[in-house]
Amino acid sequence: MNKPVRTVLLIVSCMLALLVSGCLQTKELYNGNKVTAEKVALSKDASQVGTWETFDLKIAYKFAVKGDILEISGQAELGDHQKMVYDHVRSLDIYLFFLDYDSRVLLTGPLDQSFGGSTEQTVLFTRSYKIPAGSKALSFGYSGQVAEQDGQMTFYLLPLKK
User: Fold this and answer.
1) 3-state DSSP call for residue 101?
2) By the 8 A CB rule, do 49 and 59 touch?
3) At 52, is the secondary structure helix, strand, or coil?
4) Whole-angstrom Cα Rg for the chain
5) Which of 154, 136, 137 is nearest to 145 (CA)?
6) Which entry of 17, 22, 28, 117 is 20 to 30 Å from 7 by CA?
7) pLDDT tens column, 4-29
């Protein structure tokens, strides 16, 4: 194979690899990874109310399991540190994770991606999900960025390890 053909094949291969790597759907993000954050037990045909809280984020939730459907609603707000130090939310993606008996992610569901503007705001959410087979618990995760006049900060809590 001559050098120009080899170069073209290399470029095309690299472009395809980049294209394919960006095509992973949200529901497949973190599949198989272990969640170490607080978990909420998932019971059949039961309702539950609670609060899930970290240094960065507080989520007050209410959910009901009806057959293989989870209906969840609630509100999310930033932690006190972000509210006191930063003025603006550049982005915040909040996820709901369905977990197996070993706390491994079976499915990732986007819970809210509309958070933007003031760090003082509270966002409301209402979602329904089909519960994947083998789900034993739920957990939450997030990835965001806040800013103020002199800088910005990125923060996250995601199941990144297998």
Assistant:
1) coil
2) no
3) strand
4) 19
5) 154
6) 22
7) 655 544 454 444 443 344 444 555 78
CATH number of the domain residue 116 falls in: 2.60.40.2050
From edge to edge, which strands make up the β-sheet containing 69-78? Answer: 47-53, 57-66, 69-78, 122-130
The mean of the pLDDT values for the chain is: 85
Are 159 and 36 in contact, with CB atoms under 8 Å apart?
A: yes
Determine, yes or no, domain membership for 85.
yes
DSSP 51: E
* Structure token pair of residue 46: 């039961």
For residue 87, give its domain range: 27-157
Inside any domain, residue 143: yes
H helix intervals, 63-120: 80-85
Number of structural domains the chain divides into: 1
